[in-house]
Amino acid sequence: MSGKPRLTYLNGRGRMEPIRWLLAAAGVEFEENFLETKEQYEKLIKDGVLMFQQVPLVEIDGMKMVQTRAILSYIAGKYNLYGKDLKERALIDMYVEGIADLMQMILMFPFSPPEAKEKNLDSIKERATNRYFPVFEKVLKQHGQDFLVGNKFSWADVQLIEAILAVEEKVPAVLSGFPQLQTFKIKMSNMPTIKKFLQPGSPRKPPPDDCYVEKVLKVFMK
């Protein structure tokens, strides 16, 4: 064993992408095992590797971890990205959960039927500009620091920069009314570990296309 975390998922974003982001932001190298067939997935279930018969699966510190939220909170705690006390952790949890709600819409968008895509895209834009991004614009302005919690880089910052870039792929001008978030995006994108992750050839996955949707349906659907 190399000692590097080993990630098992499809070769695409999905529920593994925030995990890749968090590990990369922490400066942690990892290995990936890509599921290509339903048989590979069913073998993991048969072998008892997946506690709830679901991926993502992350093998780290001798554990076979499942459930995205549990994996993320473990990584955040392990690499000191989870605040200095319970109050900071509670703030990080609230911010992360809010961002996750927005990211769920983005996660499901590629699976929309063609006739619903425009409506669903409008929903993403509306939620981002009216519900989620105003919260973080206000937090950054009132907090007066570079980061969302305390004055230290945390899991919440990683989730937010991932969400900003994901929404911008679909709505390029989404930050036009959010000057604090524009500044935040530039600062986060230039942090060395994140800058490296944003370069071509990194483990960051491209936006999901029809081939990815087809692969998801092939591997996971009964």
Structure description:
- By secondary structure, the chain is an alpha+beta fold.
- It has two domains: 6-79 and 198-210, Glutaredoxin, CATH 3.40.30; 86-191, Glutathione S-transferase Yfyf (Class Pi), Chain A, domain 2 (Up-down Bundle), CATH 1.20.1050.10.
- Helices cover 55% and strands 7% of the residues.
- It is built from nine helices and four strands; from the N terminus they run βαβαββααααααα.
- The chain has helices at 17-25, 38-46, 68-78, 86-108, 117-143, 155-170, 179-189, 192-197, 210-220, and strands at residues 6-9, 31-34, 57-60, 63-66.
- Helix 1 links the parallel strand 1 and strand 2 (31-34).
- The protein is globular.
- Residues 3-83 form the GST N-terminal domain.
